[in-house]
Structures are given as structure tokens and as C-alpha cells.
């Protein structure tokens, strides 16, 4: 029995050495990944800068009317395509947080690099809205039927927490390329700021 224990420890020690070697490779790959990400971001910025100059020059050529119109239109189309291609590449790279996320979370990286994970996070966001909307509706009905101050305060807390969480989740989605409308986010920020105010305070 004791020999088996020592043999198992020796076997486990061998597995741990393999783990250490794998971790070293993993850390090295992370460094390489960071370098490639920065290189891609730099190249995208360079592409956009050069395309901006090309677009201005094309605009001048169109005014002068000296160059072939078809050739100019073809180049404009190619620039639009390249802009879209750069945007697609950019979606696979980490992005800086907006002002709101920097205030709430600091400089924590919230970029989701895999498309499947982005879709999963968006799906969780939709489920979160649905579940909390149902709970909020139930709370609202109870507050109409039952006049109980702690119940009302619980409902107010739920609203504030819900909209605060919603604005954070939507900001993370925005960082990851989601096309959430500005007015949609604004009305959540608005309710986040004023959701604490009990409209029926006068009853008490």
C-alpha cells in the first residue's frame, strides 16, 4: 500500500513537470499573441491613414476632371472595400474601453476575441433582460396591490441594479462591435440615474 502511494507521487511529479513545460509554452505564446495584436493594430491605423490621404486626393481629381471617371470610381469602391476589411480584422483584436467602462471597471480588458463567445455573451444579455423584465413586472404589480414600504424599496433597488448592470453589459457589447443604438443606451443611462426616485413617495 505504501509503495503504491510513493509510486503515485512519482507519477504525479512527472505530470507536474509536463504541466510546467506546457505553461512555459503558453506564456510564450501569450507574449507572441500580444506582439501580433499590436502589430495588426499599427498596420490597421497605417491603412486608414493612407486611405484617408488617397480619398482626399481622389476628391481633388474628381473636381479637376482630368482623370478617367471610371478609374476613379473603381478606386473609391476599392477603398470602401478595404475599409470594411480593416473593420472586420479589427473585430478580432482587443479594443480600449470607453469612458464609462474606464470609470466603472478601470483599464480591465473586456474584449471578446472569438465570434462564438461574442454571440454567447449577446445571448446572455438578451436572456438577462427577459428574466429581469418579468421579475420587475411582478414587483410592479405587487407594489400596486400591497402598500408595504420595504417591498417598494426592494423594487427601487432592483430597478437601479438592473439598469446599472444593463449599461455595463451594453458598454461591453459596444466595445466588442455590437451596433446598439445610441438612444437605446441613453434611455438606460437615464433610468439608471433616476430609477432610485420613488414616484409614489407622496403616499408615505
From TrEMBL:
Domain of life assignment: Eukaryota
Keyword set includes Nucleotide-binding: no
Keywords in alphabetical order: Coiled coil, Membrane, Transmembrane, Transmembrane helix
Compartments (UniProt record): Membrane
Sequence intervals crossing the membrane: 128-147, 153-172
Topological category with respect to the lipid bilayer: Multi-pass membrane protein
GO cellular component, one term: membrane
Family recorded in the similarity comment: Belongs to the TMEM120 family.
Protein name stated in the entry: Transmembrane protein 120 homolog
Organism: Photinus pyralis
Native organism taxonomy: Eukaryota, Metazoa, Ecdysozoa, Arthropoda, Hexapoda
Amino acid at each position: 500500500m505504501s509503495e503504491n502511494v510513493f509510486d503515485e507521487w512519482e507519477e504525479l511529479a512527472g505530470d507536474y513537470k509536463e504541466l510546467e513545460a506546457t505553461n512555459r509554452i503558453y506564456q510564450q505564446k501569450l507574449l507572441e499573441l500580444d506582439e501580433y495584436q499590436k502589430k495588426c493594430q499599427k498596420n490597421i491605423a497605417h491603412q486608414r491613414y493612407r486611405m484617408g490621404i488617397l480619398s482626399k486626393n481622389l476628391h481633388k481629381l474628381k473636381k479637376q476632371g482630368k482623370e478617367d471617371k471610371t478609374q476613379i470610381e473603381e478606386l473609391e469602391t476599392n477603398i470602401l472595400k478595404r475599409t470594411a476589411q480593416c473593420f472586420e480584422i479589427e473585430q478580432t483584436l482587443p479594443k480600449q474601453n470607453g469612458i464609462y467602462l474606464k470609470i466603472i471597471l478601470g483599464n480591465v480588458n473586456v474584449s471578446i476575441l472569438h465570434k462564438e463567445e461574442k454571440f454567447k455573451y449577446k445571448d446572455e444579455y438578451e436572456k438577462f433582460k427577459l428574466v429581469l423584465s418579468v421579475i420587475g413586472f411582478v414587483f410592479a404589480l405587487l407594489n400596486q396591490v400591497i402598500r408595504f414600504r420595504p417591498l417598494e424599496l426592494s423594487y427601487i433597488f432592483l430597478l437601479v441594479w438592473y439598469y446599472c448592470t444593463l449599461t455595463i453589459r451594453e458598454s461591453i457589447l459596444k466595445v466588442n462591435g455590437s451596433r446598439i443604438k445610441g438612444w437605446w443606451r441613453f434611455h438606460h443611462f437615464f433610468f439608471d440615474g433616476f430609477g432610485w426616485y420613488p414616484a409614489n413617495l407622496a403616499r408615505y
